[in-house]
């Protein structure tokens, strides 16, 4: 699997970015008692997902993350498939800020059926996000990002989450919609005539931009104490339109893209 190659970079990206990120939960219990300073949350994350966009094979990755929030404040809700974000405008119902994601690559040595197809390096996707709570239990979020590295296209993700807390348990569930421009779709789903000739199992294909997938994300979190919590989640994406029609997906992969994950969090007060 290609996880060893990208693990070091991802750990650095996630750890460094989340230093500025206030992780986001509106419905948490009383905050950790601390009169001044910060609440630090350390997380261990394990994720399982497709080896590359459109693949029916899975890759595993584990990485740490770290976040801070002011002492005396509660942790705001964040869905497990949100990008890493930092807010410039943050009130009770509306948030605007910057966001970033990491996208793994596609490599021949881990996927022998891809012989002849160009490899795709990992990419980072910085961008902006907008989040709105029309109701106390309902969150809408949109992210628009631009890729650097493996792809150079623009992508957008839209999501709606119903969030409910039952004692120590928090449940969230909602639909997802993803879009990508032609630069993005041709990187991951396109096949040039030269690649088709070298591979011999796929035909040339030049997709256009548009909706790439629809799906849903669900998560359950349990607060063992004010310090310890765990979150388990599942994601589902159904590739659609030109992404679903790609010969890479039809010959080697699947339109159905599942993901799973588990996060363990520990929070403590820190006063410099």
From TrEMBL:
<keyword id="KW-0998">Cell outer membrane</keyword>
<protein>
    <submittedName>
        <fullName>Outer membrane scaffolding protein for murein synthesis (MipA/OmpV family)</fullName>
    </submittedName>
</protein>
<comment type="similarity">
    <text>Belongs to the MipA/OmpV family.</text>
</comment>
<keyword id="KW-0732">Signal</keyword>
<dbReference type="Pfam" id="PF06629">
    <property type="entry name" value="MipA"/>
</dbReference>
<keyword id="KW-0472">Membrane</keyword>
<dbReference type="InterPro" id="IPR010583">
    <property type="entry name" value="MipA"/>
</dbReference>
<dbReference type="GO" id="GO:0009279">
    <property type="term" value="C:cell outer membrane"/>
</dbReference>
<feature type="signal peptide">
    <location>
        <begin position="1"/>
        <end position="22"/>
    </location>
</feature>
């Amino acid at each position: 699997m290609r996880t060893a190659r990208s693990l070091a970079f991802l750990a650095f990206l996630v750890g460094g970015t989340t230093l500025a990120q206030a992780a986001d939960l509106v419905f948490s219990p009383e905050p950790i008692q601390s009169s001044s300073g910060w609440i630090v949350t350390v997380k261990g994350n394990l994720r399982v997902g497709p080896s590359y966009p459109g693949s029916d094979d899975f890759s595993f990755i584990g990485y740490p993350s770290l976040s801070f929030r002011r002492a005396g404040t509660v942790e705001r809700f964040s869905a497990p498939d949100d990008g890493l974000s930092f807010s410039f405008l943050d009130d009770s119902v509306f948030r605007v800020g910057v966001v970033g994601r990491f996208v793994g690559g596609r490599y021949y040595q881990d996927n022998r059926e891809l012989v002849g197809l160009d490899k795709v390096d990992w990419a980072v996707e910085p961008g902006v996000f907008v989040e709105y709570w029309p109701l106390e239990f309902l969150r809408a979020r949109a992210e628009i990002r631009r890729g650097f590295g493996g792809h150079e296209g623009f992508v957008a993700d839209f999501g709606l989450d119903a969030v409910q807390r039952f004692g120590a348990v928090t449940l969230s569930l909602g639909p997802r919609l993803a879009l990508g421009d032609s630069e993005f779709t041709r990187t991951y789903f396109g096949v040039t005539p030269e690649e088709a000739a070298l591979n011999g199992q796929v035909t040339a294909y030049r997709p256009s931009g548009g909706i790439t997938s629809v799906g849903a994300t669900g998560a359950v979190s349990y607060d063992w104490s004010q310090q310890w919590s765990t979150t388990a989640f599942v994601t589902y994406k159904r590739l659609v339109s030109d992404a679903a029609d790609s010969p890479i997906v039809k010959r080697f992969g699947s339109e159905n893209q599942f993901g799973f994950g588990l996060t363990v969090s520990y929070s403590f007060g820190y006063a410099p």
